[in-house]
Specification:
The chain is mainly β. The chain is built from one helix and four strands, in the order βαβββ. It is elongated and about 45 Å long.
Length: 60
């Protein structure tokens, strides 16, 4: 029988890229524990289009 856990997949999207007006988006897929972090995640990740580290926020 499969385990049922609190981990869910989340999508992180760059906040600076949307406001820059450049085509495309920078998105990362990761997992988080709903029990430990009920709020939306914010991580610093590399944006290959802007060629720098930016803040990526959880969407959906």
């Amino acid at each position: 029988m499969a385990k049922k856990g609190n981990r869910v997949q989340v999508i992180l999207e760059c906040t600076e890229h949307k406001s820059s007006g450049m085509p495309g988006t920078s998105r990362y897929i990761t997992t988080k524990n709903k029990k430990n972090t009920p709020d939306r995640m914010e991580l610093k990740k590399f944006n290959p289009v802007l060629k720098k580290v930016t803040i990526h926020k959880e969407i959906k």
